[in-house]
Amino acid sequence: MTRIGHVWRAKPGKIDEYKRFHAKVWPELEQVLREAGITTYVIYAYDDILFSHMEVEDYDRMVERFNGDPVAQRWEDEVGELIEYVGADPASGWPRVLEEVWAL
What we know:
The protein has about 100 residues and is an alpha+beta fold. It has one domain: Alpha-Beta Plaits. Helices cover about 35% and strands about 25% of the residues. The chain contains four helices and four strands. It has helices at about 15-25, 25-35, 60-65, 70-80, and strands at about 1-10, 40-45, 50-55, 85. The protein has a four-stranded antiparallel beta sheet with strand order 2-3-1-4. It is globular, with a radius of gyration of 13 Å.
């Protein structure tokens, strides 16, 4: 199991809409995430800065599965209006994976 952290930002004035959007994540998207090997996925907000922590069996396989799924792409199209990835991975489009510094 691999732990992954990401950071991104809500576009100006969009954080409340982002939170409302995530209040009801589509069940079919949750299924895609589980089938892609994610066991834990948590998103935190600090003002307009968003941080996620996930635990996933194989991150590269998960990204490939997620990026190739029509439900996931529909989700990304909609949420993409609310966020911006600073320093996104040009190959995958995902936020840059953060360096893990310490874990208990």
